[in-house]
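cache lookup: miss for this entity combination. No prior model stored, computing from scratch. Input as submitted by user K.M.:
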Amino acid sequence: MRFDLLTIFPEFFAGPFDFGIIKRARQQGIVEIIIHDLRSFTFDKHHVVDDRPFGGGDGMVLKPEPIFHAVESILAEGSAEDPAGEVIVEQGRAEEKRAGVILLSPQGRLFNQSEARRFADEYSRMILICGRYEGVDERVAEHLITDEISIGDYVLTGGEIPAMALVDAVTRLLPNALGSETSALRDSFSTLACGLLDFPHYTRPAEFRGWRAPDVLISGHHGEVAKWRRRAALLKTLKMRPDLLEQAPLADEERRWLDELSREKC
Ligand code: SAM
C-alpha cells in the first residue's frame, strides 16, 4: 500500500509514523508513506493555496487548482497508462486494485473498522487530502475524490490527525503488518469478534491494590477462559455500545441472556 498525504503542514507528520507497527511496516516495505506539501503544486510566486469564500463569511477555503494538480500528478507518477487503477501481482495471482482519493472532512462518511478493512482490501494506494481553515473548495468533493471520510462527529482544525488515524487503522490490517495475524482478526468490531467489542484484558500482577484479575483467566483452563471471554465481550458491548448488538450474529441463548440482563438493568 502506498499512502500519499497532501497537506499544507508537512512537518506535522514528523514522528507519528516512526514508531511501533507503522515504523516496522514501512521498514518491511508493507507500506510506503509519502508526505507532499500542497504549496509545491502551486504556480504563483507566493505559493497561495487558499482564498476567501465566495458569498462572504469568515475564514479561508483551500483552492481547487493545487489539489487537482497534486492528485493528478501523484496518480500519474504511479501508473502512466491507467492512473485510476493498476494490476498488482501478488503470490502469483493478478489482483485488480484501485487508487483511492480520500478527502478528510467532518461531513464525510463515518470511518470505522469495516471502512478500514475495505480500504485495505480494495486499494493499493491512497491519496489523502488534508483540509484546513473553513475546508476545501467543494469541487474537490464533487469531481476528484473516491471517498469523503470523517473520523467522528466533531470538528478538528485540520485533516492531518484524521489522516494519521486512517493510515494507522488501514496499515495494521495489511498482510504481515502485525506480528500475529490473528490479533487484527479478533479485535473489537472484527468479523471473528462478531462485530462486538473485544473482551477485557488483564496481566500480572494477579492482584493490584486489592483488585484481583478474574481467577478463571489465571486457571489455565482454556475452555473456561474462552467461555468467560465471550461472555465478558458481550457484557462490555452491552454496557458501552449496545447498538453493536443489534447486528451481531449471536446464538439464541446469548440473546436471551442479554435480554434478561437489560431487563434487570431497567
Ligand atoms: N467548515 C467545516 C465544517 O464545518 O464542516 C470544518 C472545516 S475544519 C475546521 C478544517 C479541516 O479539518 C477539514 O477540511 C477537514 O479536512 C479536517 N477535519 C476536521 N474535522 C474532521 C473530522 N471529524 N474528520 C475528518 N476531517 C476533519
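stored under new cache key. Residues 79-94 have pLDDT under 50 and may be disordered.
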